[in-house]
C-alpha cells in the first residue's frame, strides 16, 4: 500500500483526474508569470525557512534577519534529541529565531513523551492525560501548565501562541521614500501551531494529532499575523495535490481569513518548495477542484480508471477550470502588460529539508523578503 505521504506515480494523477492533471502545470505557470504576490521593498526582512531536519544539521544555512523552523526537530521526540537540534539552531547567527514542534517532537505533547522524559515512566501521568486529542491540539503549552526542560536560549518557541519581533531600521537607503522611514524599527507578528490531521493511524509517540474531520483551526490565528507557521500544510498547496492531498482544509480556510504574507510549514517531505498565492478567484477555483477530487485518492488504480468520465461530465469542474485560466491570464496581463502591482498576496512555503524518506537533508532551502509592519 502506498503511503499517503509519498508522491504517487504520474500516471495515477492522470487516471484519477486527467482534467486537473493537465491543468496543474498551466496553473503553476500562470502563478509564476504573474510575478511576486507582494512587493518586497528594498528594506524587506530576510526570512530563512527550514523544517523537518530530524536531528540532522544543514551545513550552510543562509544568513538572514529571521530563521524559522517549522517542526520535526527530532526523530524520537526526546529531550535529548530536541536539545541537540536546539543547540545547533542557537549557534546560528540570525538575529531572531522562531521554532514550532512537529509530530515527531513528542516531548511537547505530554501524552506523547517517551519513557525517559516522563516524571513517572510507568504511565503518562500528565495533567491532561484524559484530554482528547482534538481538545489538546488547540491549547498552548502555557495554558496546560506543562513546564519545559528545553533550554531555548534566544529562540522563540511557539505552541498555539504568537510573538511580535522587532528589528532595527535598515542601515542605509538610496530611495527618498525609504529614507523617510529608515529611522523606524521594523516588526513582524508571528503565530505558530503544531497540530496535524491524523489522515493515517498515528502511534502514541506522535505529538498533537487530531481527527482529520475535526476543525482544530477556526478563529485560532490572530488576524494581524504577518507570518503563520504550522507543521501541516493547508489543503491544496504543496501537500501532494491535486487529488492526493494531505493538507488540512480547515487550516486553508483559516489562512484565507488571515491572509498572511508568509505561511511556512513542512511535514510532507515530497512537496517541499514554494508557491505564490493571490487570494483571488483563480485560487478559489483551483482549491475547489482539488477538494472535489480528494475523495478519489482512496480509490484503487483500477477503480480510478473511470476518472476521465467523471471529469467529462463534471460541469462545475469545467467552469472552475475556466476560472483558473481566465483569472490567471488576467493576472498576467495586469502585472506584465499594464504594469500593475500585486500588493495583498503572499507565499506558501513547504520548508521540509528531509529529502523524501532518505534520511538525508536534500531539499532546497527557502529564503524570502517579508515587508515589516
Automatic annotation (TrEMBL):
Residues 46-270 form the Calcineurin-like phosphoesterase domain. One of its GO terms (molecular function) is hydrolase activity. Gene3D superfamilies: 3.60.21.10. SUPFAM superfamilies: Metallo-dependent phosphatases (SSF56300). Pfam families: Metallophos (PF00149). InterPro entries: Calcineurin-like_PHP (IPR004843), Metallo-depent_PP-like (IPR029052), UPF0046_metallophosphoest (IPR051693). PANTHER family: ESTER HYDROLASE, PUTATIVE (AFU_ORTHOLOGUE AFUA_4G03130)-RELATED (PTHR12905:SF18), METALLOPHOSPHOESTERASE (PTHR12905). This is Calcineurin-like phosphoesterase domain-containing protein. It comes from Penicillium alfredii.
